[in-house]
Amino acid sequence: MSRKTLLALTTTHSFFVAPLLAFTMTAASVTTAIAAPIAAPVKDPASEDVARAGELYDNGSGLYKEGSYDGAAMAFIQAYELSGDIDLLYNVSLAYDRAENFEEALRYLEAYRALAPKEERAGLGEKVDSLKLRLARKSEAEANADAAQSDAAQSDATTVDEPKEPSSTEPAGSGSTSTDRDAGPRVFTPLAGVLTGLVVAGVATGIILGVSSRSATSDAQNQCSGGLCQTSASSDLDRARGRAIGADIGFGVGAVSALALIVVIAVNASKRSKARANAMLVPSGRGGAFAFSF
């Protein structure tokens, strides 16, 4: 019997900032320093260990679905240490990423990438870069928050006996961790707007000149009878031909502009999709999948 589950998610926001100023300044370095080393994959695990790893994986999956991401990460780590299945390292990274613990998410993703198949490494490299970017933004937000807390503490110390005016300013760093899901260029750019205008103008010009050409042709035909035409009929025909050519040009401009508009929108949509994909951590290939056989 086998079971296989794929965990996929997108990540937003930054993780919890410790309330004590003295500790928050070194939180990232302390976390890295005390982080337990990642065990090497075990070889030929015992059947009872594989069975227990399956139970832990089920526990982790349930906790993940409930939103208990730290607990899910712990269960996946224990399952990996018992089974040696490297896919669980990816699941650990996903859980920590969802918990906004970007340091640990990056550490376990790097561990998985070191052992992953060759065909997955390029995609994993992009996810590593995405995590590093969000980690840098989180660190910047924390630094801004620490600076704001320090300024507020100094202000309170110098005005302790004075009434305080309510402040309407936003806390520092409150908007510095904008989500990456809106990353990327807009689909409908100014160039797309110009092309849309050319499509409308070309088609409209073609229609107007086409109708006018048909009208001039009709006028010329009305001046002919029995194979004989009045002198003015020739000028009407010339006018009809000129407007017909103008109509063709107008329709041609509209068609070319419409094709260019489609290409521009398609390219922009593709760029936006890639930008949003790079802003989220998602599993690919075998990543995040864990199978047991009994």
Question: What this model shows, in words?
Answer:
Strand 2 (224-225) and strand 3 (228-229) form a beta hairpin. The radius of gyration is 33 Å and the shape is elongated. The protein folds into 2 domains: 2-141 and 281-293, Tetratricopeptide repeat domain (Serine Threonine Protein Phosphatase 5, Tetratricopeptide repeat); 190-278. 65% of the residues lie in helices and 5% in strands. It has helices spanning 21-24, 27-34, 47-66, 69-83, 87-98, 102-115, 121-158, 190-222, 231-278, and strands at 2-6, 224-225, 228-229, 289-293. By secondary structure, it is mainly α. The longest helix is centred in the C-terminal third of the chain and has 48 residues, at 231-278.
Largest sheet features: 2 strands, antiparallel
Q: Helix amount, in percent? A: 55-70%
Strand content: under 5%
Specify the overall morphology. elongated
Using only CA atoms, what is the Rg? 33 Å
Mean pLDDT: 75
Number of helices: 9
Ends apart, CA distance between termini: 5 Å
List the helices and strands and how they pair.
Layout: E1 2-6, H1 21-24, H2 27-34, H3 47-66, H4 69-83, H5 87-98, H6 102-115, H7 121-158, H8 190-222, E2 224-225, E3 228-229, H9 231-278, E4 289-293
